[in-house]
Design goal:
By secondary structure, the protein is of the alpha/beta class. The chain has a single domain, classed as 3-Layer(aba) Sandwich (Rossmann fold), CATH 3.40.50.2020. It is built from five helices and ten strands; from the N terminus they run αββαβαββββαβαββ. The protein starts with a helix and ends in a 5-residue tail after the last strand. Bound molecules: guanosine-5',3'-tetraphosphate (G4P). It is found in: Cytoplasm. This is Xanthine phosphoribosyltransferase. One of its GO terms (cellular component) is cytoplasm. Pathway: Purine metabolism; XMP biosynthesis via salvage pathway; XMP from xanthine: step 1/1.
Length: about 190
């Protein structure tokens, strides 16, 4: 998605060879107009997939997921990293280890929001090592829901997340694929690669 790539080049900050800071439009301050276009793009990619729910994880997945849900006209569910006081129903749960942050989160979604009748589009802001996406896929599996695919805003293609998810047979659609962050420069995977 050209507009997203241009925003990454203009406003993204390369912190080191592994980390891209995009807090001015995606992970802290949110560019709602760009997010709306991102949501429409995901909706177009999955318009014939029979999506009934969009599933993401708090916090930074919520913005692109809400706009995808709006464009697809389906509810959006975000997995919680901490149990809420009012979460007293049965829960679907999975452990997600973050290599970046070196912490494990037990993520959860209430069983009442995902069922075997659902066909899910999983959305997340970043795809790095794929652990968050795999955790969300696991919650869908526990609910008996189908997973039509994984929609990612920014994929770091030099990490192994896509491989792990595709190896399990799932479709992955990333709107920007970053090939390298070396020399303080963002290099994208060319469309042909
Ligand atoms: P994984 O889910 O693909 O395995 O990713 P990983 O554990 O490596 O990443 C953990 C967290 O760090 C995730 O956010 C992910 O979105 C974020 N992250 C990974 N790589 C980058 C990066 O290059 N830049 C930025 N800005 N974030 C990155 P999270 O813990 O779920 O946090 P949040 O959504 O609550 O902010």
């Amino acid at each position: 998605m050209q507009e997203l790539k241009e925003m990454i080049v203009k406003k993204g900050i390369v912190l080191d060879e592994n980390v891209l800071k995009v807090d001015s439009f995606l992970t802290h301050q949110i560019d709602a107009l760009l997010m709306e276009k991102i949501g429409k793009r995901f909706a177009k990619l999955y318009q014939n997939a029979g999506i009934t729910k969009v599933v993401t994880i708090e916090a930074s997945g919520i913005a692109p997921a809400v706009f995808a849900g709006l464009a697809l006209n389906v509810p959006v569910i975000f997995a919680r990293k901490q149990k809420s006081l009012t979460m007293n129903t049965e829960l679907l749960t999975a452990s997600v280890y973050s290599f970046t942050k070196q912490v494990t989160n037990d993520i959860s979604i209430s069983t009442k929001f995902l069922t075997s009748d659902d066909c899910v589009l999983v959305i997340d802001d970043f795809l790095a090592n794929g652990q968050a996406a795999l955790g969300l896929i696991e919650l869908c599996r526990q609910a008996g829901s189908d997973v039509a695919g994984i929609g990612i805003v920014i994929e770091k293609s030099f990490q192994n997340g896509r491989q792990l998810i595709e190896d399990k047979g799932y479709r992955v659609d990333s709107l920007a694929r970053v090939k390298s962050l070396k020399d303080n420069k963002v290099e994208f995977v060319s469309e042909e690669e």
